[in-house]
Predict the structure.
Amino acid sequence: MTGIAELKLGNETIAIISISGTWSIYEKHPHAEEFIETILSKPSIQRVDLKFVDLKSWDSALINFLIRILDSCKSKNLTIDIDNVPTGIRRLIELSKTSPVRTTSPVSQRKPTIFEFVGRVGLLVFFSLKTFLGFVGKLLTGIVFFVRGKVKIRSREFALMLQDVGVKALPIVFLISFLVGLIIAFVSVLQLSQFGANIYVADLVGIAMMREMGCIMTGIIMSGRTGAAFAATIGTMMVNDEVDALQTAGFSIINFLALPRVIALTLMMPLLCIFSSFIGILGGLCTAVSATDLTIVRYCTQTAKAVCLNDFFVGIVKSCFFGFFIAAIGCQKGLQCRHSAEDVGLTTTTAVVTSITAIIIMDAIFAVIFSLLGM
């Protein structure tokens, strides 16, 4: 039993708190607040003593109880002695008093100014870009060694990877590209029909799909599908310490994990881009034929006249770069994953967002370059 009693020694009144039995966080025990209220309700009490009688077992519940009693007595200028406390308990109480308290400096509490915020973001982008460029350099070195035959990739696993990033992605690429082509044609029909220029719907859909929408939509799809899968797979290997095991066994992580994925996606992206472009043109054909007086033959003939080899070349070049950077970003983010399951999800999300952002930035750069080249 745990309770409180009073003892008078001369002019001094002592409150004796007796502690006994079992103290465990899994069992019900007295609250320190009850004893504190009882002591404070009697102004004659000037001193508090702790008495331990038949204490069987205890854990942090007892330590927490005693610390609350000690803090309350100290704040009310009541004398309390812990010399009678068992040695192990007393050491833990003293350790809790000497443990450092984390304080927040006034600088960290201050809201950063717009210049500080821009500076921090700029430094974060700079160091992230520096790290990524270093990773890309290692990949390019690995590709050079692969071409020269100094780095080997397991053919069976590489074939399965080509199938995964290529053939298995055809259904979603078909669906998205068809709908994009259909929407572009529908918007074009609404505007061009006012001028009796429905024949130019084929021009708009064909050029848009070949130069821009085919490679961009394929890149976005592969960012959310394949790039995220690369980041999640390698991130999970990091969490399970499989990457450390491969390094211990003497494998190059870049050549063994990242290089096959980068080469596979770089090879398959142009094919997926071509497929996406033709499916988008097919979607535009369906809309134009059903919404205007154009026939299938006239639409296909006009598309062949409008789309030139330069448009086809532009889309292929973009898709190669998109595939390389999507795979590189996914692998790099996966290798940066820490040892927790939450980081795998965060890594996957970061890989997708970074890949899509990189695609848009690269497309804008390519637009300027091809414009200067007259393509």
Notes: The longest strand covers residues 45-57. Residues 139-372 form one domain.
